[in-house]
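As agreed, record passed on underneath.
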Amino acid sequence: MANVKVYSTPTCPYCVRLKAYLDSKGVQYENFDVSSDENKLQEMISISGQMGVPVIEIDSKDVVIGFDKEQIDILLKL
């Protein structure tokens, strides 16, 4: 099973959709609220070069910016 990290905020509609999608597929993930965790915000920026959410990191090597369902499905083999 892949190690999945989701960097999100509670007010981001794409973040909500992403987490609901992962839940529906039975994908376990660790969620980080970058609106309240400065360290995770900096970590997200360093891996993605982005300030926008959601950012998904898969197995510490693949990064998907935004809710890109096709790319997520490919990387997670869904």
